[in-house]
Design a protein that fits this description.
This protein has about 300 residues and is of the alpha+beta class. The chain is about 25% helix and about 35% strand. The chain folds into 2 domains: about 110 residues, Vaccinia Virus protein VP39 (Rossmann fold, 3-Layer(aba) Sandwich); about 140 residues, Hnrnp arginine n-methyltransferase1. Keywords: Methyltransferase, Transferase.
Length: about 300
Amino acid sequence: MLNEREIESCYLGQFIPVHYHHNMLMDQNRMHGFKSAIAYGVKPGAKVLELGGGTGVLSWFAAANASKVYCVEFNPDMVKEARKFLAMNPNGEKVEVIHADAFEYMPPEPVDVVICEMIHVGMLREKQVEVIESFKRRYLERFGGPLPLFLPEAVIMAVQPLQQEYDFEGFCAPIVQFQETAAIYPGTVELAQPAVYSIIDFNQPNELIYSWQGKFVVERNGEVNAMRFVTKNILAVVQERSSTIDWLNPYMAVPLNVPVKAREGDVLQVSFQYRAGGSIASLQATLKAEVLYEAVLQPAQHMPAFA
């Protein structure tokens, strides 16, 4: 019998088959960003823990510098695959793949770096935030301080009003859409600039509830019928260069249950609330927009007639 967490994990996609991981391995922005961040954050001889290792590729990046890497994976099929892949790659012997629950596992010794990539747009569905907060409490109880460095180090989340086309060959279907950040979608019209609604610093304590109410100045006439959620992952802060190594998730456009007509200059108020790791539906159920102030229309200017 599966326990409650295992049932939820199946629903949330934690037991995805290995061929799905091909998409992640093919994502050059993700792979290059994490490889660079791990090479910077994992110093020679460091001890590293990865929570939710999947194929083991991020643990393998860490093994280039680390003396030991503990790679924790909950899916028994992925445990077998990760062990097989790591045996095929140099330094793979430094990585110990452990079949365990990231909510419960503690390494046998203190570690210098914790890698965790259970990231979904808006910190929804996946358990990134909850897993790390649970780990911090248990780590301090077991080993005391200081806490290890967490990679990614931070996440910046923003939201943006859209007019989104939902006509599919004449079939109207307002549905959540994921969009590549570098692509142009003719059916997507940005009606205002994005606004940041939360910044997560994994090296500090974090709440699990995101509750936000904010305002936008509408930049063009249209119907606000969706909100775009933007998630920028700060994989590492490179202090020597005062820069960061980043990875931007695909955009997520969530339809509004009640669309709103808006004109250029209107002030739009948007509100929502959800729990880290919660479902997209839980966000959509609370997502609301309304025109708070209408733009003041200027009287028409009469031009002098030509003689």
